[in-house]
Design goal:
2 domains; about 75% helix
């Protein structure tokens, strides 16, 4: 019950309140999901997110190129 209330509260960019509640595994996961960990943790998350975005962009661009070739012929 208390944990649910804690998750709903920090909405208006209250980074500190989220960071302070890093008690259990749940808190740590929440910090990692929002990309607000410190040091290496934050870098790892950003690198992973960037990698996923790049892959999506590459897939879309390769699909578009395929469509252009089909329309051109």
């Amino acid at each position: 019950m208390e944990r649910q209330r804690e998750q709903k509260e920090p909405r208006e960019g209250e980074r500190k309140s989220v960071r302070l509640r890093k008690g259990g595994e749940g808190g740590r996961d929440r910090v990692r999901e929002r990309g607000r960990g410190r040091g290496e943790q934050r870098k790892i998350v950003k690198e992973r997110e960037r990698g996923e975005k790049d892959r999506k962009k590459e897939r879309k661009s390769s699909e578009r190129e395929g469509e252009k070739e089909e329309k051109g012929s």
